[in-house]
Amino acid sequence: MAARPSWATPPEPGQESVWDYPRPPAIEPCPRRIRVVANGEELAATERAYRVLETSHPPTYYLPPDDIDLGRLQPCAGSSFCEWKGRAQYWALKTDRGVIERCAWSYPAPTARFAPITDYLAFYLSAMDACYVDGEKATAQPGGFYGGWVTSDLAGPFKGASGTAHW
Predict the structure, then answer these.
(1) Is the pTM of this model over 0.70?
(2) Which pairs from 110-113 meet CB under 8 Å and 24+ separation?
């Protein structure tokens, strides 16, 4: 692990610094209560998520398909490639107001290291009504590309905001 940069926010008691997360990223089971609300209804709730931790990023939560209302989701066009996890598939949410494209993603065939999240879905918080970690409403990681969830137990700054592309 590289040393935390001098400009990183020092963590307060009970906080984790995202600058202490590793690169390549780590994956760990997350027994915390994770909830996703979309179109005014609970879309997912679990205590069986995984979280992926990568230097300078808030955690990304991957939820098991059995704990998601998959009837409201459909695969959609496009994919992306992560050097650590492999090729991602994107998902769209069907709502009474239309379809929200690319609001979630999964890895149908991730690399061996990330095999535990095979077919688990991660959600872009910015596309949902709300996402919660143990009852705390999370905020979206800055920028439009990354899918981390920011909670009060994290110290940043977080990659994704303007001027952070070089991190």
Answers:
(1) yes
(2) 110/85, 110/86, 111/84, 111/85, 111/86, 113/24, 113/27, 113/84
